[in-house]
Amino acid sequence: MNDSRAAGGDGRFLGAVTAAACHDLMNHFATFSQALGLMEDCLAADARTRLRSLGFKGGFEHKERFQELIAMLHGQLERAVGLTEALALAAHSVDREGRDVPPPEAVRALLVLCERLLKRRKVTAVLDTAAPAATPPWPALRQADYLGPVLEVLLACLPHMPMGGELRLACRAGAGALAVTIGPGEGRFSDDARAACLGAARAAGVEVAPGESLTLVFQEQPTSTPASCPPDAGQAS
Amino acid sequence: MPIYDVNILLVDDEKEFTSTLAERMALRGLRVRCVYSGEEALKEIAAEKPDVVVMDVMMPGLKGLDILRHLKATNPEIQVILLTGQAGTRDGMEGMKLGAFDYLLKPLALDALLAKIAEAAAVGGKAQ
Fold this sequence. Notes:
The structure holds two protein chains of two kinds. Chain A is 54% helix and 13% strand. Chain A contains seven helices and five strands, in the order αααααβαββαββ. Chain A has helices at residues 4-7, 9-53, 63-95, 103-113, 115-120, 143-157, 191-203, and strands spanning 124-127, 166-174, 177-184, 207-209, 214-219. Chain A has a five-stranded mixed beta sheet with strand order 1-2-3-5-4. The radius of gyration of chain A is 23 Å and the shape is elongated. Chain A starts with a helix and ends in an 18-residue tail after the last strand. By secondary structure, chain B is of the alpha/beta class. Chain B has one domain (3-127): Rossmann fold (3-Layer(aba) Sandwich). Chain B has a five-stranded parallel beta sheet, with helices on both faces. Chain B is globular. Chain B starts with 6 loop residues before the first strand and ends in a 5-residue tail after the last helix. Chain A binds chain B through residues 19, 22-23, 26-27, 29-35, 37-38, 41, 45, 77, 81, 84-85, 88-89, 92, 232, 234-237, and chain B through 14, 16-17, 20-21, 23-24, 27, 56-59, 64, 83-88, 90-91, 106-110.
């Protein structure tokens, strides 16, 4: 598996820097959120005060417009928080052992981060969350070991997807390996898309299970050691 | 005793966050003070003992967990709610082991925080 970029010094550095930046962003978002809340409080207080003391009908003239804008900002903030959470999770993949994050959660974070790329072709990506009856423990893999190759396959596939198409992904564990299946929402990949995916998987040194569906197999690497990193580097608080 | 009687201390080095949060709580009639470092927090607690401390985990100087350890050794009746980022859940869990009442992830909703403060104060015998 070609994980040299992810596991190397550059990867660790970028992981730590990204995680630290995410920490800062979350603190900013927390302030934005409270400031928006305070604006709402003030608008509400304004209306109450005027109604009570002056008998005005409306209070602040632009109150409704401000409320709309505040609601819009709350929505944008929610998106930003989601992206930052996903980025923080992915950033930790290169500077920490990722065994405590189940692969479906890590893959979901990757899809959140790819949303903009997917939108260029109006493609949606759905992670299958149906839990198998008996789930064996997830194999000991660093997130970088599988997230990088999954991303490369997704990026290779994307130009060959129909506009407005759907990608479905699923993670399964078994026999010391993680299997990530990638396929179209309906039917099967076009020959071009499948060839592009296989080429990307091959370039990333990833095993592809035989069969109709495209299943990337990541074998557990017991010798894989976590990168050295200060215990709380980049942790948000 | 209603939540309005609970003496609350906010501790976070993010000044704008802390002061805005304190202002919103004050608008709701809550008794709240805020400080911006662990060192200031210890002085403030010595000057007037709060019922509930809401405290960031990661601050320059004295960290939230350091203050928590100190409080649990000297004033175990003070309930502590930790604030942590998404990636700091391990710190939050560590705080729970050290005796924190609970931890909340930033960014947080005020209603969720107020509900948690009421729960914490009830454990300390101060709120209904």
